[in-house]
Amino acid sequence: MRTASAEGSEWIDGFLFVANRPILDLLNTKPVLADGPTELLPDVRALEKWLIASGTVASAKAKATLQGWRNSPEAAIFLERLIAFREKLRGAVLRIEGGSAPMDAFLTEVNSLLLQHPLPALLHKRSGKVVREASFELTKPTDLWSPIVDATADLLAETEISRIRKCESCVVHFFDTSKKGSRRWCSMNICGNKLKVAAYQRRKRGDA
Ligand SMILES: [Zn+2]
User: Fold this and answer.
1) How many CA atoms, within 13 angstroms, populate the side-chain half-sphere of residue 102?
2) Which of 106, 145, 160, 169 is the most exposed place for a label (fewest CB within 10 A)?
């Protein structure tokens, strides 16, 4: 899956990609913008755009399948369930960031989805080398659970949980891949500069 660079390309097709993990950027599809909390996945068309922007759906065939679901009631139901799942995942991530384990009920739900929607990893040849890549066939909207719950399981079983963090200044979550592990902000462009200016002004006033 692709990762946005830190040099101002945090937004891809109207979505924020600052987390280094697309599953955390799924949480970031409800950021707080100038007008308050904003749902960036209001309909199936938006979900289609996010799945492509995040690299979750990459093949031309799968993209065409997605397009065919724009007016599908099943896709609308999937989106509704996905949004509910996103908010439960947010709860689990907030607990992890606070030093607690996710609730058992959420792990049970994830396990049930993992059993229903396994993500097979198959062998492919790439430039003469054999690589193992996750692959899933899209035949119905619920097949989209496979990459989502697989990434969720990876995140929850992450060994470096101290690197799963929330921005100090907003609701955005990220996985810190910096060498020192000292990243504090969603991005320098969005919150970093704002915080630095505030800290500078506090120091100038002498109340830091
Ligand atoms: Zn932020």
Assistant:
1) 22
2) 160
